[in-house]
Amino acid sequence: xxxxALIVNARSRTGEQAFEEALELLAALGVDVxxxxxxxxxxxxxxxxxxxxxxxxxxxxxxxxxxxxxxxVDFLAHHHSTLGLLPLGTANDFARTLEIPTSLAEACETIxxxxxxxxxxxxxxxxxxxxxxxxxxxxxxxxxxxxxxKKNIGPLAYPVAAVKAFIKHQPFVxxxxxxxxxxxxxxxxxxxxxxxxxxxxxxxxxxxAPGSGMDDKTLDVYAIVLGRTxxxxxxxxxxxxGDFVKSESVDHFRTSRVVLETEPELPVNxxxxxxxxxxxxxxxxxxxxxxxxxxxxxxxRYDG
Length: 304
Fold this sequence. Notes:
- This is Lipid kinase.
- The chain has two domains: about 5-115, Probable inorganic polyphosphate/atp-NAD kinase, domain 1 (Rossmann fold); about 125-285, Tumour Suppressor Smad4 (Sandwich), CATH 2.60.200.40.
- Helix content is about 25%, strand content about 35%.
- It has helices at about 15-30, 45-55, 65-70, 95, 105-115, 135-145, 145-155, 155-170, 230-235, and strands spanning about 5-10, 35-40, 60-65, 85, 115-125, 125-130, 130-135, 170-175, 185-195, 200, 205, 220-225, 250-255, 255-265, 265-270, 275, 280-295.
- The chain is elongated and about 60 Å long.
- The two termini are about 20 Å apart.
């Protein structure tokens, strides 16, 4: 191995100032950083991670938000390199799930002194993701989530964007089928949103579903039906805790594979990025990624 590679998305919310500070902190903690890259063009982040993995660097210390992780995880999945994360984004839901601290000093301490665990990844076709893939309202919210909002109000940008999205959102027709036969097919005439979650958090701290986790080898699927306005307000009220799945307007399924078809065909939001269109198959990739977490974290375990 050629030491760690520090790769920081310098365009992330706090990336520019964090790069040099992280280098100093890691060196003081005795972490051998063999290569370091401040990436100012996010489009080059994935190729930079890929090159570091192929060169044998371990761990890959990535500074960025959920989008940075999701865009690079394809090169880390089922590979020898371990991910060390410096949460520098707006939501940091992947880090939140794994109890990785958002303080740069504490995150560097985690990389130097933490434990390695295995976590599941979601799959949209052959594209890996870490938190959630969704269709409907979240797509409109992503479009409304401007860099200005993220930079100036942080995680509060997500509910603000959701309100803007709800005003213009149109319901859609959806059909779910389960290739493994663990649930009967289901059709919906007026869907507000459908999401397939792998991690525990999304959208700046909202819970995917009660009991959702990152090493349970299943996906949490929920469908929100556009019903009465008062029912939707009830859903919105309990989004933070995950208890929204108990609403009459929400169906919740736990599965390892699901196929989604919609009318019309719709874009799919994967960890905050629009990357594909329906129809799509979603599945879980068990123990696909090795990550360094704090020594006291109980969010996942190492399965070898």
